[in-house]
Amino acid sequence: MGEPKQIKDRIERDRQKLRRLAENHGMQDNKVLEQSMVLDELINEYYRFQYKKHMMQRQPIA
């Protein structure tokens, strides 16, 4: 998707959207579930990016 900053910004926007949907429709609404899954995938993408970055910076042991 993009750089970590862009992903973090999108996570925050989608988190706010999820909160609004939950307030307006209740936690059991399909819209809330769908938005929650979108947010989960963005968070996973961010952590995958961070993991790859970490692995590339590792130094050999020997």
Automatic annotation (TrEMBL):
GO molecular function: protein dimerization activity
Classification via InterPro entries: HLH_DNA-bd_sf, Spo0E-like, Spo0E-like_sf
Biological process, per Gene Ontology: regulation of sporulation
Top-level taxon of the source organism: Bacteria
Name this protein carries in UniProt: Aspartyl-phosphate phosphatase Spo0E family protein
Species per Swiss-Prot/TrEMBL record: Paenibacillus amylolyticus
